[in-house]
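Recap slide: Gylcosyl hydrolase 115 C-terminal domain-containing protein, sequence and predicted structure.
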Amino acid sequence: MMNQRVRRAGVALLTGLMAMVSATACAKSFVLASFDNVVGVVVSPDDAKVVSKAADMLRSDIAAVSGNTPYADDSHGGPAIYAGTLSQSPLIKQLTEQYQLDVSGLREGWEQYQYFVIDDNKAKPRLVIVGSDRRGTAYGLLAISRKMGVSPWEWWADVTPEKQFPLQVDINDTLSSAPSVKYRGIFINDEDWGLQIWAAKNYEPEVGDMGPKTYARVFELLLRLRANLLWPAMHKSTIPFYQIPENKQVADDYGIVIGTSHAEPMLSNINGEWDKDKMGQYRFDTNAGAVTDFFRNRVKETASFENIYTVAMRGEHDSPMIVKDSGMDEQVELLENVINTQRQLLTDNLGKPASTVPQVFVPYKEVLTYYQNGLEVPDDITLMWTDDNYGYLRQLSNPQEQQRAGGAGIYYHTSYWGRPHDYLWLNSTNPVLMWEEITKAWEQGAREQWVLNVGDIKPHEYNTELFMDIAWNRKKFSEDEAVFRAISDYFARDLGEKNAAQLNDIFRTYYQLVFKRRPEFMAWNHVEPVTLPGETTLTQTHYGDEVSRWADAWEDLISQIKALHANVPEAQKDAFFELAYYPVVAAGNMNLKWLYYYKNRYAAAQGRGDAKWYAKKMRQAYAEIIRTTDYFNNELASGKWQHVMSASPRELPVFQLPPATAANLRDEAVSLVVEGFDVPLNHIINNSHADSLPVINAFTRKPRFIDIVLNSDKQQSWSLSSDEGWIKLSASSGTLTPENPVQRVWVSADWDAVPKGIDSKEPPLGHDFQLIPPSFKVTASLEFTAGKASHQIGVSVFNPDLHVLSDFDGFVEDLGYVSIAAERFQRSSGSDAATWKVLSGVGYSGGVIQPLPVTAESVEAADDLVSQSPSVEYDFYTFNRGSASLQLALVPTHAQYKGRGSRIAVRVDNGPVEFLDFATQGRSETWKNNVLMNRAIAETQTEITSSGKHTLKVWMVDSGVMLDEILIDLGGRKQSYGFPASTYNEALSR
């Protein structure tokens, strides 16, 4: 009914608004709510139940947006939406015949819909939505909600839609495309610490678990996401899906297909349903009768529903199949017998050949080994390829497998429990990486079934939506930039247009930071077995102090998200907290907790007074995680999400508060710490080199730091001055206090004023700028004073007058190494068959390069590389010559299929072509390190025959690899987590 408040609006307002409706309306506009009327949403009771469900959802959405509640029939005599399934709805049959609607394009369609606007009666315009099948009709109805700006997360993330009145939508009456992927869905997994507890104690206490009420909300979300498949929760903490009879009926009412994971063959939850005491061991070699009966019963129970049956078997829960000690051939044969038995059960109990029943084979972990060793899978079964649990697909269909009748699919994780370390807490999977991997799968023919392991659903909202959007319309996501355009659109829709651009920037940075190391990995320890926190490989001594740079980045990001949150309208506060605030603040403080722990240990080992301050900041970060999570559970949305978020899944060491280390303080009131040295300058006795900063290179222009640290409980003033005017200091004086006991000063040069060193065509040799003769350096000194204490610090600038570098567009040696960001190549070659392209938003440097298309053939011979393979070239300049280590950092993807590799080829100048392979085997230590760092290092030795200009050429050997960074180590590289920052010739760029 129309709101009385609106009825009483003034005549002028009414006239103005109606004029606006008239002006903006067009042939394809359809008014859902106005001052004159509100639409009816009409479906036939004879249609599938999901159609009624979707109609109810649309009515609710129209009411939420416009304030007016739609009718459920057309008795009001106003505008109406009629929706129905082509083969099932008498209403649609009548309308298509009456108005001669052309629905021929829908007859063989899969989940498609078409709109028809009938306006023969201007007082009663009608929108007819015809679906090719029951889900097509539902998607057609809910597409209207999308047009109104209603978020799929309106319930699951408390997104309040923007009010609109009058309310109208633009209608395109063309036939919708079929989805790019036939079956698209999620796997609820590792639900023990959030979703299951929330359902049992808060949302569905009458069941005391995840039951039909909870699953109804999940199914509603799936419909809004245009998904159609669910693998239900299956841990022992949760009642198995089929042990609550209503669950399967609710799934069918919402039109959702049920499947099960790699460890749950034939829709059977082995983890929760297999009773050893009654059934014996769960193994097919010695107990085939009981196992077969178990499978048979489930097939009979589910026969009348829409299902996808997982074939083959593993052990109980996530473990290998139990078999007696036998060879690979015997194990493969046994698994083939399992599959044959399962298919016979389908034929016998479903009344049709197994070849017509949707089935999937998931070669996960050891099952992939069986498949690679000859396991034969019937042609009509879908091969579902899996990632390695950390976002890298282990294998895809080769050209022969791409011809299989059953096609292929993928099972992908954004949440995982297992070695080398869990990441169950937050969404830390880089969306561009996910896009790249699943797009690669689609291009290799994996288009039948995609499943995303979303853990507890929250907080995986936007990666889930992105995954489903790509699966729905892959063409819309043909380029990497489409990923962040989509995320920006999500932010604009859910959190306000004015915040979208800044949120996009914040989350670009967020995903780059968590790509370098997920928050859950920050304790540098492992699981299975669980180990204690280890030593970080981040350096605090070199390259601007990696620990502090990471901490500063997270502090800045937290500040940005808090400032935005403070100004968010009240109606958006809850959604903003769930979708933006909590992920950034929680991940940021997890990083800060451990980063300040490492700062505390480092400072304490040096006897510095700031050790206590870092311990305090560590505790503050931990307290903010606890406080913010408590708000999520107990105050957010008036307690709606109580128990859904854990601050410590599995109580792993990374989530605990680490111990603080007390410093044995030095006598000096102030410690002076200089970049490049592990001990404060004024703590060193008789070390002639310890009072100089690392040389500043005029071509890379990287500043050096000095830390000034208070060692007492009394404030201390300090000053820093230079004997040369061309020295630039970020601060020349200050006061240290117990509340702020450390200040970092950055030392650089005024490059317009710094004198030139010797004019030369060829600089001297030597792996250390410190050893370069004085004529090539410009020196100065800094005078530090604090109270009665004083100290001198030397500054050297390498600034030779090298004319050859005045217009050199490339990378320059700095302190014995050259560091190259792969996306900043000088030249490239390619063709329609393959070429290198930049993917932005992933990688350590913010972008990677990849040879595309991923279907390009491998090029394996050195001669063929030179003549056929796409390449990129990098120009670099060295001041040294001799042997060097050439290291390439790549994103640790796997070979696309058996017979392909993970290879790349390189050559320096006219030297030999070197082939590098960064493939790993199984769960090797190298693989573990790679996935913890999202980085694989391939290394070879090369010869730099002379100082001066050089060229590095990189060729594609196997398509699909992603090159991130390159390091040429001439002997100067120090230990660090990542490569030193790019040494691009900054002198040219300024």
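Confidence is low (pLDDT under 50) at residues 1-27, 764-773.
The first helix runs from residue 4 to 7.
(End of recap.)
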